[in-house]
Every structure is written in C-alpha cells, then in structure tokens.
Amino acid sequence: MAVDLGHADSGMSVAVCYSSRVNVTVTSLLTAIVSVGCAVAFSADSGKWISAVPAEQRDTLPKRLDAYVKAYRSRDWGKLFDFISDAGRGGVDRPAFVARMKAAHRKDFSNSPDLLTFRPARTTKSNKTEYDVYGCGSAQREGQSFNGVALVHAVFEHGDWSFSGWSFTEFPNEPCKTLSDPSWETPGPMEWSRPMEELRGDPAGAPFHIDSKK
User: Fold this and answer.
1) Which one, of 190, 194, 192, lies nearest residue 212 by Cα?
2) Rounded to an integer, what is the distance from CA 14 to the centroid of its chain?
3) pTM of the predicted model, to two decimals?
4) What is the pLDDT of residues 181-213, one digit of tens each?
5) Per-residue pLDDT tens digits for 96-143
6) Do the Cβ atoms of 151 and 176 come closer than 8 Å?
7) In sequence order, which residues have a C-beta less than 8 Å from that of residue 27 and are 6 or more positions away?
8) In sequence order, what E strands does 129-183 have?
9) Which fold has domain 46-199?
10) In the chain, where are the structural domains located?
C-alpha cells in the first residue's frame, strides 16, 4: 500500500516500493519476491530529490522518512521518538518526550501542528552529515489545515537516518507549485542544533508557529 506523502500540484505520482527477496529451496531454483511496503510517493520527475545524499546512504532515507511522517500523522509519539535525532531530543527520555508532545499537540489547543503528509522534491546538504529535505507538506492544527513548501531536517548518525524536526519554509506558506519553478531557491539555513520546539520551555506556554522562519 503506497503512502501518500503529499498532494501533487501537477503531473503523475508514482510510488517507489521496496522489496525483499526470499530464497526458496535450492532444488526449486526459484526466488519469491515478497513486497514489504511502499516507502515514498512523489512526482515522476522528482527522482533526483535524493541525489545530494551519498549513494551508500540513500537506500534507508526514504524508508525512515516515510516512517517518521507516519508516526507524526498517527500521533504515535512513542514511535516518533525512535526517529528523532540526538539534537532534536535534547537529552530527554521517551516518557518525557511523549508527555511533551501530548501537551503540545492537543486537539482542543495545540502549540504545534501535526505533520500529515510530505512529498520530497529536493535535498540540500547543510552540514557534514545533515541535510534539508524540501517538499510539499500538509499539516493540521486545531482542525485547521495547512499546505505548502516544507522541509524536514535529516541527520545521518549512529549508522542510520534521524530527523531534528520539520517546518514550513515561510508564513504565509509558499504554495507547493513553486517547487517546480526553476528559479525557486531554498531559504536561508534554519537552526537545528537545539531541541524540537515542543521540548523547549514550558509546554503549557503561549502557542507559537512552527511554520515561521527561525
């Protein structure tokens, strides 16, 4: 089943699926292909979105990104913790992380929007092992929907991909169609060395916009 990580403005969408091969008995000389899921759905012409990442690290990024978005969308904060970078966690443990996320993402009053979908379009290197993945994102906060150009900050650490957080690039949000504009340029660097917004300060404090520039 494909996971839709964004709403295409134009063009055809395709799903990139990954599979595992299961070897049957030697005598049968057959190999069964077992589909284990689809990682990311994106525009047919956006296969280059991951080209900035070293070839040996590319295979796992779409899968980890897909799982990160799924955990966010389902509000499974305990699962999301597994995909957060060391910097994003800020030293908190899983129970504290879950408590803070629940406080910041309440349905009646929410300090932060819930990331629902994300379709990657391009990636830029921001540090030796850190990358900004830009794409079309959608989110919801207190019943209000948001859609626009967003980025997810990816970090390759401990032999795998983690994420320090996500943000819309501008407020008001840039329309996703700008991603197909050859003249569009990525915004200036954002600060990702601090813990996630939800983990800073008093979780019961004043609301803030995650889609504003930091």
Assistant:
1) 190
2) 18
3) 0.74
4) 999 999 888 999 999 999 986 544 333 333 333
5) 999 999 999 988 877 788 999 999 999 999 999 999 999 999 999 888
6) no
7) none
8) 130-141, 144-157, 160-168
9) Nuclear Transport Factor 2; Chain: A, (3.10.450)
10) 46-199
